[in-house]
Fold this sequence. Notes:
- The chain is an alpha+beta fold and 141 residues long.
- The protein is globular and about 45 Å long.
- It has helices at 12-16, 58-61, 93-118, and strands at 25-31, 34-40, 47-53, 62-64, 71-77, 83-89, 138-140.
- The two termini are 23 Å apart.
- It has 3 helices and 7 strands; from the N terminus they run αβββαβββαβ.
- Helices cover 25% and strands 29% of the residues.
Amino acid sequence: IPPRSTLGGDKCGESLHWDKIWSGWVQVVSCGKRCEIRLEDPNSGELFAACFMDPGQREATVELVLDSSWYFVLRIEDRSGKRAFNGLGFGKRNEAFDFNVALSDHEKHVRRVNEEVGGDNSGDSQDHIDIHPAVNHRLKV
């Protein structure tokens, strides 16, 4: 997307829904404390881009658009540190809602794990069952 014209944030009405360069699947993958947002081709599964969300960095990685709940801005960074800001739009409100919930669920899981690690460890560790999906488990939204 083009650079912002104001400090307030991006708006869908300005450019996000007009310049579509790709269409496909969005997968949210929980990799321990880090969350990976994968944009993949629906036919071949080829990766178009990936956005990595570290703990506490959601607002910097996935920005909400000011005038629509269907659109987001992803900060995609390559190995050399170059950044691109790509607009991500969903065709249906429930798809955008599910995407947002998947990100929130990941954050809640990381917070819960951090609290358990920092909390009282005097209890029997055999009573604890980890029901969080394994690394690289894919959720389609």
